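The methods section describes the discrete structure representation at length, but only in general terms. An entry of this sort, consisting of the sequence and the corresponding backbone structure tokens, reads as follows.
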Amino acid sequence: SQGQFPLTQNVTVIEGETATLTCRVDQNDNTSLQWSNPAQQTLYFDDKKALRDNRIELLRASWHELTIRVTDVSLSDEGQYTCSLFTMPVKTSKAFLTVLGVPETPQISGFISPIMEGDWMELTCKTSGSKPAADIRWFKNDKEVKDVKYLKEEDANRKTFTVSSTMNYRADRSDDGAVISCRVDHESLNSTPQIAMQVLEIHCKYYVSESDEL
């Protein structure tokens, strides 16, 4: 059994999508292969299904490969999966399945419209469900607002996060019509950030009538 050993790779998948776990053996003299989950339950022994879970399917089973897939992956599927080659002694290879939680569309609270010039408003942008915690940034038109407060809280499931970012804004007349946006970046979004936006409407405090100017 020299040179007989299983090879696996770590897998990262977005919650709700499909994970494919492949175990390969270059040289194999008809020795069985097995995939087991993080709880050490056997999923497949060669081409025989061992765990009753409709989401787990066999893709390929041969002496050189045992590939299975898990559809509709949930956060609780995350962990270390083991491929075992039943040589004497048994040889194993481990693959870690990482499940990403997708952040929900962000919401902006505290927005006042119209607002009088010189007045303040405290804006908070919030998104839940991200794993790992999402990144939030604020922009006024295309310029990033730097002086903000970031808060990260664990959700009730102990796996995902609710993140929020708060900025204080003082109304300036020159910002009338400007767009305030909150941008959420996360590795599950494939480089397409989620954005919430509001348009500033700023009213002047003092109106000068024509007769006063004369």
In short: The two ends are 102 Å apart (CA to CA). The chain has a mean pLDDT of 93. Residues 16 and 94 are 23 Å apart (CA to CA).
